[in-house]
């Protein structure tokens, strides 16, 4: 019995020893795995976890650059930056977003449009980036949040520089405006260079020169604590401010041009023919661009969109109008260049013109006709029949080709975003767009600047400057130079040009002299000056077509059916320093309505005294 108990105890002891050994081996194995894992984490992946650790306490913050300023030709500040305060929410730092916004709305006014903008921008940004819930806080609102801001973790007031336009509607169409970056813009811009930036050029000069004005983003590495608060700055690279732009634009002349248009809808473009510098670019009526910078209200935007005056429409570079008789000097040049006419060749004007074998009568503006007129007389009296005949003998191919050399039908390349190119009708264009053949009667209509022929006021000003230059066509430019921050001088922007060759200088002189007589004794004699000589051409642009037996009578027509009034000119004739194009929508005769606008602008620029002659009499153009 004793032996059996001893055997049992020995067996139990062996079993315990085996179990202890197995447990020990398992413990050693487990410990070995832990050691191996620790070695792997602390040795093999040391660099990786060091970076992760540093990223938890080191943040890279973008430093947006200050946008470049814009000055006129005389150093007047046209686009500035002023401090503005917004209320930003950093999503990752907020527990209950809806409750936070609800609490903020009891402290600071938050409109539905603020919520809508917040929701849009929230989708565009990372959770660690601030998203504005309210823009342009007042001083009182900033003070209220300063008192109660501790109750809203993840919500901060952010100060930023915001664009402002001191002269408002006087520069709206030429400078354009900046606005908040939208989703489409975010998809095409360099996101790294716009980190921290809220604004981008939306139209006009601001959009065309965005690359110069924006600058280069900077950054700073900061150390933060567990709650995300900045402890210290570790490293920084300051941003590079955008370049300042210095313009050819003369804001004094710009204001004179706007005042000269008065309440009329229309546009003025004035150019220095010596360098293509845009002295004035006005579209009337205008709007306040400051409304758009931080987001225009739906009410204000709808009011602008629904206005019959279309204040948002840039008539100077996007308005496409039949140029009317303002095209006749170019048609005359085309005839001289092609050898189809001479200065002496006369055409008899009976008041109408018919193509051989056709009964349709293309009428002259003077029903009784002008009699026998040569090239100069035809320009001075704006005889339609002379130019019907000249266009018919040239044909549309030579005519459209020559006029295209002056830039009609194509973009001028001006540094104002949104330009349209007008329309220079041709045989190819009609076949391509309308799938129809060209008819001879259409050539006649093109010869007097009507029908499908469309030109912008900018194109007319550029082409007129080319006549003043005897064929040198210069690309129009609003910005003259760009100056980097701290640079001692501004860098001149390049001037581009090409020359139209006629073969004889005398042909240019003939056209210039005829245009001078238009002002001195012709359809624009109302604005003739005793202080300097003006070369010009009047024009009217039909709003609707008249039947064969109908007669235009402005007294019986509503305002919106009146002809558009046009005038192009340059001065002084001997040494041109300004070329100008004016359109007054539904203004009637160019000599009576548009020419006085141009005279007032030229007097302001050249130092003359505006004295107009009341000539009265027939309608003319």
TrEMBL record:
The keyword Ribosomal protein appears for this protein:
no
**What are the Penicillin-binding protein transpeptidase domain coordinates in residue numbering?**
266-603
Q: Name one GO cellular component term.
A: plasma membrane
Q: Topology with regard to the membrane?
A: Single-pass membrane protein
The annotated active site, in chain numbering, is 325
Q: GO biological process: what's one of them?
A: proteolysis
The residue ranges of the Penicillin-binding protein dimerisation domain are 63-234
Q: Which InterPro entries match?
A: Beta-lactam/transpept, Beta-lactam/transpept-like, PBP_dimer, PBP_dimer_sf, PCN-bd_Tpept, Penicillin-binding_protein_2
User: Pfam families of this UniProt entry?
Assistant: PBP_dimer, Transpeptidase
> Under which main EC class is this enzyme filed?
hydrolase
Write out the pathway annotation from the protein's UniProt entry.
Cell wall biogenesis; peptidoglycan biosynthesis
GO MF terms listed in the record are: penicillin binding; peptidoglycan L,D-transpeptidase activity; serine-type D-Ala-D-Ala carboxypeptidase activity
What is catalysed by this protein?
Preferential cleavage: (Ac)2-L-Lys-D-Ala-|-D-Ala. Also transpeptidation of peptidyl-alanyl moieties that are N-acyl substituents of D-alanine
TM ranges are 20-39
**EC number annotated for this UniProt entry:** 3.4.16.4
Keywords assigned by UniProt? Carboxypeptidase, Cell inner membrane, Cell membrane, Cell shape, Cell wall biogenesis/degradation, Hydrolase, Membrane, Peptidoglycan synthesis, Protease, Transmembrane, Transmembrane helix
Major subcellular site: membrane
Q: What does this protein do?
A: Catalyzes cross-linking of the peptidoglycan cell wall.
Q: Which family does it belong to?
A: Belongs to the transpeptidase family. MrdA subfamily.
Q: Spell out the PANTHER family in the cross-references.
A: PEPTIDOGLYCAN D,D-TRANSPEPTIDASE (PTHR30627), PEPTIDOGLYCAN D,D-TRANSPEPTIDASE MRDA (PTHR30627:SF2)
Name the chain's protein: Peptidoglycan D,D-transpeptidase MrdA
Gene source species: Thiocapsa rosea
Q: Which taxonomic lineage does the organism of this UniProt entry have?
A: Bacteria, Pseudomonadati, Pseudomonadota, Gammaproteobacteria, Chromatiales
- Gene behind the chain: mrdA
């Amino acid at each position: 019995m004793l032996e059996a108990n001893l055997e049992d105890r020995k067996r139990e002891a062996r079993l315990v020893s085996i179990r202890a050994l197995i447990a020990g081996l398992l413990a050693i194995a487990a410990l070995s795995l832990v050691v191996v894992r620790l070695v792997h984490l602390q040795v093999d992946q040391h660099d990786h976890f060091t970076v992760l650790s540093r990223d938890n306490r080191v943040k890279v913050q973008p430093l947006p650059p200050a946008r470049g300023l814009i000055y006129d030709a005389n150093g007047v500040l046209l686009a500035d930056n002023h401090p503005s305060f917004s209320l930003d929410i950093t999503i990752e730092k907020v527990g209950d977003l809806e409750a936070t916004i609800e609490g903020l709305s009891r402290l600071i006014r938050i409109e539905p449009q603020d919520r809508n903008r917040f929701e849009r921008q929230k989708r565009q940004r990372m959770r660690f980036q601030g998203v504005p819930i309210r823009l342009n806080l007042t001083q009182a609102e900033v003070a209220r949040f300063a008192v109660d801001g501790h109750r809203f973790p993840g919500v901060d007031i952010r100060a930023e520089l915001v664009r402002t336009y001191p002269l408002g509607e006087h520069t709206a169409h030429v400078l354009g405006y900046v606005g908040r970056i939208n989703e489409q813009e975010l998809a095409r811009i360099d996101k790294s260079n716009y980190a921290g930036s809220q604004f981008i050029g939306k139209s006009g000069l601001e959009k065309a020169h965005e690359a110069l004005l924006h600058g280069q983003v900077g950054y700073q590495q900061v150390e933060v604590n567990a709650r995300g608060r900045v402890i210290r700055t570790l490293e920084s690279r300051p941003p590079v401010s955008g370049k300042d732009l210095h313009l050819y634009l003369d804001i004094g002349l710009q204001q004179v041009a706007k005042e000269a248009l008065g309440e009329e809808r229309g546009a003025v473009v004035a150019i220095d023919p010596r360098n293509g510098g845009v002295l004035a670019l006005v579209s009337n009526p205008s709007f306040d661009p400051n409304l758009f910078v931080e987001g225009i209200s739906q009410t204000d935007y709808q009011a602008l969109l629904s206005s019959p005056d279309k204040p948002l429409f840039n008539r100077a570079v996007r308005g496409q109008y039949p140029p009317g008789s303002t095209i006749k000097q170019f048609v005359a040049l085309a005839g001289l260049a092609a050898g189809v006419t001479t200065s002496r060749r006369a055409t008899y004007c009976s008041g109408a013109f018919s193509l051989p074998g056709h009964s349709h009568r293309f009428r002259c503006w003077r029903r009784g006709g002008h009699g026998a007129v040569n090239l100069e007389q035809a320009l001075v009296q704006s005889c339609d029949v002379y130019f019907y005949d000249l266009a018919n003998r040239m044909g549309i191919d030579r005519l459209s080709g020559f006029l295209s050399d002056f830039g009609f039908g194509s973009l001028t390349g001006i540094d104002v975003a949104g330009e349209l190119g007008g329309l220079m009708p041709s045989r190819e264009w009609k076949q391509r767009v309308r799938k129809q053949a060209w008819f001879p009667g259409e050539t006649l209509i093109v010869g007097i600047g009507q029908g499908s022929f469309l030109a912008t006021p900018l194109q007319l000003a550029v082409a007129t400057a080319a006549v003043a230059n005897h064929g040198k066509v210069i690309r129009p430019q609003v910005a003259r130079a760009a100056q980097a921050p701290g640079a001692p001088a501004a860098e001149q922007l390049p001037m581009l040009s090409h020359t139209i060759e006629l073969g004889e200088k005398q042909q240019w002189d003939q056209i210039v002299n005829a245009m001078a007589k238009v002002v001195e004794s012709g359809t624009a004699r109302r604005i003739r000056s005793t202080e300097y000589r003006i070369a010009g051409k009047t024009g009217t642009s039909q709003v609707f077509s008249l039947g064969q037996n109908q007669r235009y009578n402005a007294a019986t027509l509503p305002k919106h059916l009146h002809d558009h009034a046009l005038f192009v000119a340059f001065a002084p004739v001997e040494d041109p320093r300004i070329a100008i194009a004016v359109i007054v929508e539904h203004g009637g005769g160019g000599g009576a309505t548009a020419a006085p606008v141009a005279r007032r602008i030229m007097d302001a620029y050249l130092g003359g005294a505006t004295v107009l002659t009341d000539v009265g009499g027939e309608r003319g153009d």
